[in-house]
Write a structure and sequence with these properties.
Blueprint: E1 14-16, E2 25-29, E3 34-41, E4 43-48, H1 58-64, E5 71-79, H2 88-92, E6 98-108, E7 111-112, H3 118-130, E8 136-138, E9 142-143, H4 146-155, E10 160-165, E11 180-183, H5 202-205, H6 210-215
Parallel strand pairs: 1-11, 6-8
Antiparallel strand pairs: 2-9, 2-10, 3-4, 3-5, 5-6, 6-7, 10-11
Length: 220
């Protein structure tokens, strides 16, 4: 599997000038880390968006090798503080244990999932993360309410959101704006540090402390 699909290129994001809401789209909060594909088949390889294998996350690679499936995941390498907030400088300088936030799954146990709709892939991914080591985390989504989510993260002084069509495939470039990031103006380009469980309303999410929003994964 790794040999066959080692040339996958992570789908790129385009920058959108403003948030929007749409019932056909889902929205995620970006995480402040290194974009990576994860190849797991007996061993684990962490591969950068430029196709280079990360060598300095060997401890995390050993942990992720215990995932009980052959998988290819797309996501972000991150470091987290005690409240679940991302620590980009700690990641840069190896000052804290690393984790992997997965937001997409491309391959599972011999099956190529790239032609399945994004919403279905997210459901499959959540199930895989549920039975995996705790340093593999799940990036959840909220559906339709992009503007409300953007307002919430601005209030919390975070970075930006990612917008994706629910039915999109993991193939090629897609139509213009098919995967977009929308940034706040308060901080530098490196986005992200929380997500919201899909069962939560935005009103309910605002009642939760930041620890819950940032540390939640599929096991809760």
């Amino acid at each position: 599997m790794i040999a066959e699909l080692s040339e996958i290129t992570p789908l790129a994001l385009t920058l959108q000038p403003a948030p929007f809401s749409d019932p056909d789209w889902l929205f995620e909060v970006k995480h402040d880390g290194f974009r990576s594909l994860v190849y797991i088949q007996d061993e684990c390889l962490l591969v950068s968006r430029k196709g280079n294998t990360y060598q300095r996350f060997k401890d995390l690679s050993r942990v992720l090798a215990c995932v009980p499936h052959e998988v290819i995941l797309d996501g972000e390498l991150v470091c987290l503080d005690e409240e679940g907030q991302t620590l980009f400088h700690d990641l840069m300088f190896n000052r804290a244990p690393s984790h992997f936030y997965a937001f997409d799954i491309l391959w599972l146990d011999g099956k190529d999932l790239r032609d399945r709709p994004l919403l279905k892939r997210k459901q499959i991914l959540q199930a895989v993360v549920t039975e995996s080591p705790q340093r593999l985390l799940y990036v959840d989504r909220i559906e339709e309410q992009g503007e409300q989510l953007f307002e919430l993260i601005c209030k919390r002084d975070m970075e930006g959101i990612v917008a994706k069509p629910k039915q999109s495939l993991y193939r090629g470039a897609g139509p213009p704006g098919s995967r977009s990031r929308i940034r706040t103006t308060r901080r530098r380009w490196a986005e992200g540090n929380c997500f919201i469980h899909p069962a939560m309303t935005l009103e309910r999410a605002q009642e939760f402390p930041m620890t819950v929003l940032t540390a939640y994964n599929a096991r809760t």
